Amino acid sequence: MADSNSIEAAAFDAAVKRTRCVLFAYHDTGYAFMEALLALGAPIVALFTHQDDPHEEVWWRSCAELAARNSIPVFTPERVDTDVIACVVSLRPEVIYSVYYRYLLPDAILNSATIGAFNLHGSLLPNYRGRAPVNWMIVNGEREAGLTLHHMVARADAGDIVAQRSCSIDDSDTALTLYRKLAPLGAEISREYHPLIVTGRAPRIAQDLRRATYFGRRRPEDGRIDWRWPARRIFNLVRAVTHPYPGSFCFAAGKKLFIWEARIARENGVMGAPGEIIGDVDGGLEIAAGQGSLIVTLAQFEADQEAGARTVLGAVKARPRALL
Predict the structure, then answer these.
(1) Helical segments of 129-212, H only
(2) 204 FRET partner, CA 20 to 30 A, in 86, 192, 196, 294?
(3) Lowest mean pLDDT: which of 54-58, 66-70, 160-164?
(4) What are the CA-CA distances from residue 42 to residues 39, 72, 261, 294 (Å)?
(5) CA-wise closest residue to 166 among 153, 187, 177, 181
(6) What is the CATH code for 220-316?
(7) 4-215 has which fold?
(8) What is the pLDDT of residues 244-300, one digit of tens each?
(9) CA dihedral defined by 294, 269, 254, 279, rounded to 10 degrees?
(10) Is residue 46 within a helix (H) or strand (E), and if so which, with residue range?
């Protein structure tokens, strides 16, 4: 005679395998979440995703390719319009997931899911609602990141929380390495909470609006370095927007200079005029900040090749305030 645990597991498995899902997903976290759903045996009746931008440095795995390998219909609409709404409704979804999908889903789509519609957001809500949370967390010097699965409502990132997972942010992290830490956490959430969602047992916790923070999308021009800032603030910006993002930048010898890699030399003290090259150190150049200094190791003048900072900046090293 089967024990109660095996009976419950069988019931969960049966519920997972009969519950129709529609997935709006993109990026590596979307791929990991979708892969975990497929491993559970969840029937994904359609994937809505984005076409890769040819001008963007694409490093992530393709949700569209994963769907094609599993005979899942793929749609790549340029906007969520009435045709998309009609298509989703016709699919009769019971659960809808949005994972790093770039467009807001209207109520007509959210309400078409008979069990519920859920979003996986790249922060520990209610902190860092909005766009580019991974980049913003590093820019702001946070030490903890995470993912939140929550109910979708009309307002972005505002619905009740189902689950969260967290990880540390280290000084060695860039936005790319942090994304790679987060993607497996999304897969964990998918594996653990999808069976609870389809059986009506998932937690539901209201967000504390008093703690909510919001950040908008980042633009390439937001990467401008001000050498009057403390060394720590400059360092955080450099690693937040280095490859595959547009990069932090300043100006030297009248030309735009990208700083792709740097580390903190000293956090305190006034080492020279902000932007002054104050020495050769360990394969890089030490640059004075408003407080402390950084060692820049990889740089690039616009339209030139990136290379070691000493090679790139050799001609301007003698200037009293070389970087502006």
Answers:
(1) 133-139, 175-198
(2) 86
(3) 54-58
(4) 8, 12, 42, 50
(5) 181
(6) 3.10.25.10
(7) Rossmann fold (3.40.50)
(8) 999 999 999 889 999 999 999 999 998 889 999 998 887 799 999 999 999 999 999
(9) -60
(10) strand 44-48
Packing angle between helix 27-40 and helix 175-198, nearest 10 degrees? 30
**pLDDT per residue as tens digits for the range 57-98:** 888 999 999 999 999 999 999 999 999 999 999 999 999 999
* Alpha helices (runs of H) in 60-149, residue ranges in sequence order: 63-69, 82-90, 107-110, 133-139
Give pTM, 2 decimals: 0.91
Place of tokens 């959210």: 110
Three-state SS at 86: helix
The two tokens of residue 270 are: 């006034």
CATH 3.10.25.10 range(s) for the chain read 220-316
| 166 Cβ neighbours under 8 A, 6+ residues apart | 124, 144, 145, 146, 185
- What residues contact residue 82 under an 8 Å CB cut-off, 6+ apart? none
Report CA-CA distances (Å) from 182 to 178, 186, 205.
6, 7, 22
State how far the Cα of 231 lies from the Cα of 287, in Å rounded to an integer: 9
284 contacts 210 by C-beta, under 8 angstroms: no
Q: Who's near 243: CB < 8 A, 6+ residues apart? A: 57, 174, 176, 260
How far is it between the farthest Cα atoms of the chain?
84
